[in-house]
Specification:
This protein has about 350 residues and is mainly alpha-helical. The chain has helices at about 1-10, 15-30, 35-50, 55, 75-85, 95-115, 130-145, 155-160, 165-195, 205-215, 220, 230-250, 265-280; strands at about 60, 65, 260, 315, 320-325, 330. Helices cover about 50% and strands about 5% of the residues.
Amino acid sequence: SVDVLYNYLEANSKVPWEDLRYLFGEIMYGGHITDDWDRRLCRTYLEEWMKPELLDGDINFAIGFPSPPPGDYISYHQYIDDVLPAESPYLYGLHPNAEIGFLTTTSETLFRTVLEMQPRGTGGAEGAGATREEKVKAILDELVEKLPEPFNVQELMTRAEEKTPYVVVSFQECERMNMLTSEIRRSLRELDLGLKGELTITADMENLGNSLYLDQVPDSWSKRAYPSMLPLGLWYIDLLLRVKELESWVADFNLPACVWLSGFFNPQSFLTAIMQSMARRNEWPLDRMCLQCDVTKKNKEDFGAAPREGAYIHGLYMEGARWDMQTGLIQEARLKELTPT
């Protein structure tokens, strides 16, 4: 590469920027790039940096890092050591929240790993407090005590006078919630018997005990649940809120004034129900229907009844940006607000 560059500079009175970009981006370096998008990225970097402004110091490789003045190989190395700013999100054109999210995830992983490496012995020194099994049993008893009763779907179907699309969605959500709570009840009952010595501890029971102790949602529960990144304690509180929301909905089958969209197992089914309801009422073809979303300046408590057409929803989040209530536009995220509602 050095020899090719030297020959081209010697053979031309002016720097042949376009020729050099092609040689480096398509042949010498680009020829080793097999992915089309990576090659396109390489060409874009060369187009931005390999131009006359590079030698005049008018190009910033990063914020606060302009191109160096002419010099030799050693001076360029020294320039990088002296001038290159410290690594930060701004250096890569990112928001500071990106680093906060990364460091938070790294810290959680570190602490979880340290916690998992703790001894799992059943005994403890005198006066050392509760053992691991006692802590798991306390958590288990608390979860069982708060666990709601399953929905009687057959009774709900009998009570519903009209099977509207919204009512069908409520049935589906109740059935999925029953599947989840039934698995929670079954697995906790088995673990309780295992801790009492009435059943042999199996691998699944041991994994469940470890999850309870480490404040993690067990895999058997996650498979039957909705997507969530919450630890077990907050996840269970969220589960109870979802059950309460369903109970208030199926009490009279009237659509809630403001629907918690992210509280569904399958939010898409509710959106489909909106289109089905509108298509039936107006005798429109369903395959020609589409959804339109308008953001209001009200809170969910401000709505007293459901709208005549469509539905009011809440529970949506934004990542990497925020919604400005005053201007009604997407704006840059505020510092330390990772997922504003």
